[in-house]
Amino acid sequence: MNANATSTLQHVTSKDGTKIAYDRLGDGPPVVLVCGGSVDRMSNAGLAAVLASDFSVFNFDRRGRGDSGDKPPYAVEREIEDIDAVVDAAGGSACLYGTSSGAALALEAAARLGGRIIRLALWEPPYILDPAARPPVASEQLKVYDELLSTGRRGDAAEYFMAKVVRMPADFVAFARSQPWWPAQEAIAHTLPYDATIMGDYSLPTNVAARVKAPTLVLAGGADFPFMLETAEALAKAIPGGTYRRLEGQGHNVDMAVLGPVVAEFFRG
User: Fold this and answer.
1) Using the 8-state DSSP alphabet, how is residue 138 labeled?
2) pTM for the whole thing?
3) Cα–Cα dist 197/164, whole Å
4) CA distance 65 to 153
5) Chain segment 157-188, per-residue pLDDT in tens
6) Distance between first and last Cα of the chain
7) CB 30 within 8 A of CB 94
8) Which residue spans within 17-154 are E strands per DSSP?
9) pLDDT below 70 — which residues of the chain?
């Protein structure tokens, strides 16, 4: 199978009984892809297509998104169990890639799953070294999300994420609410508290990083906010087998045709 082959949707059952959906593409050593906040597995479809030339790619929907199920109460441990279940489906060990808050989740998974994660690649985990520059901590975000989601204000929850967490300009947020893709943001809004929980207070988790045994590549884009590059470099230094790489001309919404070959080269070892 090559990168242009049609993907096949499959499912695996996580430890708590939740059905986790994934597309499997390609043929080769296994790679598992973890998406970020406010998106589903389709955000990694371009990367999956590039990697499928050399790898068996398991591109899954995190719980509560796309074709995957969900089961309350939420805990980061449940999402790590989901990754572990996909790794099982991949044969018991795999390379792992995560993007944005999904990179923070992948980092936690690698620290807990040990030798089941062969290599780890992270794209711009959004920790922030400067405390004054961080968004509201998880406990504050969760209060807002609970109020908005419990009253059916899913659009306002998505707007809060964009405006107060990602801190996009007000004119862009207003523009976003008028776009055809906005209903998809509302549909997935109930998972925003999940990523808030994963990120915590947005400080660099050096204690978690120190427990990662897999060789790790931490990437950031040269055209992104400076804090992203500072964070990526600091995180790579905190991981015993960590390496930092800057991709010139790239922002947070990285071009998968640029990122893919770099990740593939690293995963090939």
Assistant:
1) H
2) 0.96
3) 15
4) 18
5) 999 999 999 999 999 999 999 999 999 999 99
6) 22
7) yes
8) 19-25, 30-34, 56-60, 94-99, 117-123
9) 1-7
